[in-house]
Amino acid sequence: MMKRIVLLSLLFITYFSLNTLAGVIKGSAFGADGEPLIGAVVTLEPSHTQSVVGMDGKFSMNNVDNGNYIIQIQYMGYKTLQREVAVNNETVSLELILELDAVQLDEAVVYGARERKTSESARATEQMSSQVMTVMSAQDIELSPDLNVANVVQRVAGVSLERNNSGDGQFAIVRGMDKRYNYTLVNGVKIPSPDNKNRYVPLDLFPSDLLDRLEVTKALTPDMEGDAVGGVINMEMKDAPESYSGQLNLSIGNNFLFGDGNPFMSWNTSGNMNTPPSWNGVNNAQAGDFSVNHLVNNYKNYVPNIVGGLSIGNRFADDKIGVIVAGSYQQTARGSNSTWFSTGMLSDGSTSLDNMEDRNYYQLQRRAGLHAKMDYRINANHNIDWYNAYVYLSNDQVRDVTRTRTWGSYDPINGNAGEMSYITRYRSTIQQIFNSTLKGTHHLNTWMKADWSAVYSKASNNVPDNAKFTRSGSMTNWEHAPERIAGRSALTRRWDYNDDQDLAFYTNFTFSPELNFVYDSEFKAGGLVRFKNRSNDFENYRFNAGNSALVKGEDWNDITDVNWILENPTGVNYSPNRYTSHENITAAYGQFKLNFDQKLEVVGGVRMEHTDIGYFLPQPTNDLADAGLDEMSQTYVDFLPSLHFKYMLNPKANLRASYFKSVIRPGFSEFVPIQNGDTEDDWTEMGNPNVERTIGHNLDLRYEFFPRGMDKFMIGGFYKKLHNPIEYSLNREAGYIMPDNYGDAENMGIEIDVVKYFNKFGISANYTYTHSRVTTEKAYYEREIPGDETSDIVIKSALEDRPLQGQAAHIANLSFLYKNSEKGIDMQLATVYTGDRIHSLSAFYGNDMWQKGFFQMDFSAEKRINKSTLIYLKVYNLLDNAYEVEIRQPITYAQSFYPKQGNEGDNVLVRQDFYRRQFLVGLKYNF
């Protein structure tokens, strides 16, 4: 034993002695402008030892042998620095400051500049902007786990998402303001929406790998269109590089929702009828005109998720012409296992559970994007850009539903149900947007600049041959009886189509005169003219299988075995779902920007917007024609002032304050008295020709601190006053939901946004608290004579305070980051929390539907193989939490036995969805 101790001691002494002959070099590397030189390579000669500057601007070299060395550092845009350093059994600390590198070309001085797609550029834009703005760079977007813009934008402070039934984000909710209170731009230009009812753009249409950056502006200036209260989302697409470059991106993955226990369900979409007979001039269709051979279920245990992208760009003709072409294709299998309850209001104010639905969704999404941009630098003062973009999303969805009537003979304990139905819906949705923008920028002299844009855009939404196949059944002791085809309209075939065309012209003049009383000044004037035309078409055919019930296994096995009888050969004769509408906007503005002593910047002015909006129904119902609602047109003018202050406390800190007024116009179908009975929650929607525009008054205050590099700290508050906010309410008596104005509403809150790096590790976190209040009149039941159980039940009303629809009081993001440039590793673990918020409004007191708060966690990692190649992994929905909607009314003892409901006294569960986990593995190659 003694020999072992002596031997270990000698080894320890030898090891310690050898290591005392080495030292450590630690230091920081910054530019003369104070920016950390993130990613710069620090080389020690002649040993060739290298280190990489971390995210906090620091580097280190361990176990450096004693001796004299030359340390060298290079970074684009800065002069190379060399310094002698001596190591002698100690830690040497260095502070390396690189000077900016300026190259003199005749009379022009060109400085090295970072690309707009870098994280550092995004932080600089936030700091220098005249508005309250948050920016995500292409670097941030590529590392995030997100494939489309909708999921990317949820990482921004104050932004949450409205999701579709497969769990994918679709629409942004900014600062608790529903999607209607925000608008979307591509390269600074507004685009139309393919949505069949509204003007807001589904953000899941856009592949995220086409972006150079994503900008969310939360305070409007007069040179911006004035129809936003929450914010403006601007997608800056990839721009032509300064030299030849390209990128190839390929990946494959899987959705764990589908497999042996739950195979992916689809049908032969190529058999869909693109147009119904009536659109082809057939006034009296026959059942034989409608094939059903394609409506047979197909099953697969594995449907791959595939992502591919390619971008190539270069400059030609002595760098005068720049071109970039980029394309992206994504195929994703999505879906959910869902439970839905339809509810009612009982006379005592409690909630009844009328029907339960087990819903399984199977969606195959194919998303494609193509964009091309060419710019022509005529000379140093004149530039022309031509941008074209096309995005496409097809969504082939099967919704397979088992519906159980939960009253009468329903016995959830013993598994008995006298009335059940089985509904399979086959629906393809094809959404497309095309945009072409020609833009010119002209420096007319040293103090005057002009720019203009001519824009053509078209968006369309096509739902061809939306088929719904309904059967009936029952259950005894958990055994299902054979399905039966009975009743009218057991099969329906529906077609919906709408398109939205914009023709717009923007112009802006910028003047920068020298004024004695300010350090810098800028005056802008300009306006726009936009002509928007929208058309909506609809058709529906209904079929039955005859007068006697057909039993599965005896009379039929699949839908092709049935001799279908057409109920309405002429289709729908009177349909308010067929309409055209228009919205013509003329706007003009004046704006000033004054900089006092390089510290105080003031931006303000006023915008005027003239609106001409209306609709025409070519086939109105008699009721609408008699009421004079077959067409409508109205015009109005809004003056929208704004004023913004930015005070530079020091070179790293700003204090901002702003006010702006805005106008929110109703969606197209919201003021057209049409009915839509194919909504996801199965309530008929009805337009309201009396709905008015909303006026918003908005205040912002924010403190910003940018210590160095990508680090930042922001804290701010906001207050919004809305006059005539538009929200939907559910009228159970009439059986539809309708948009309407609800007096005045307030919305206020705070935002905190923090990014901090510790060399290779970083934390990105943001939190938003939002409080809103709107008072609306709600109905409730009561005995005509209180206390007299024999008196009639009557409906009365009372005022109820509640938050705005879609607003969550608490929203938070937390991401843990790791970036090791030496080993080429980037990792991110991202968590999003969205708090409780109103999902759907009820016409009854205390009966609104609330989406419960939930966490979502995603992970992504990249490993650089060489200078050109990296591999990556993206994993979605790690926690697999349920998406749940509830009514805050207690369930009864009997209801507690219903599937998925809780214990007696718990809130009524209305909806529960599970989406399961997904992953992608891929490769990127830069050339």
Automatic annotation (TrEMBL):
InterPro entries per the UniProt record, alphabetical: Beta-barrel_TonB (IPR000531), Beta-barrel_TonB_sf (IPR036942), CarboxyPept-like_regulatory (IPR008969), Plug_dom (IPR012910), Plug_dom_sf (IPR037066), TonB-dep_rcpt-like (IPR039426)
Pfam families (alphabetical): CarbopepD_reg_2, Plug, TonB_dep_Rec_b-barrel
Gene Ontology CC annotations of this record: cell outer membrane
Topology with respect to the bilayer: Multi-pass membrane protein
PROSITE patterns assigned to the protein according to its UniProt record, in alphabetical order: TONB_DEPENDENT_REC_3
Keywords: Cell outer membrane, Membrane, Receptor, TonB box, Transmembrane, Transmembrane beta strand, Transport
Subcellular location: Cell outer membrane
Chain ranges of the TonB-dependent receptor plug domain: 128-232
Main location: membrane
Keyword Thylakoid among UniProt keywords: no
Superkingdom per UniProt: Bacteria
Domain TonB-dependent receptor-like beta-barrel: 461-878
Matches recorded under PANTHER family: PLUG DOMAIN-CONTAINING PROTEIN, TONB-DEPENDENT RECEPTOR-LIKE BETA-BARREL DOMAIN-CONTAINING PROTEIN
Assigned protein family: Belongs to the TonB-dependent receptor family.
Record's protein name: TonB-dependent receptor
Organism: Flammeovirga yaeyamensis
Lineage: Bacteria, Pseudomonadati, Bacteroidota, Cytophagia, Cytophagales
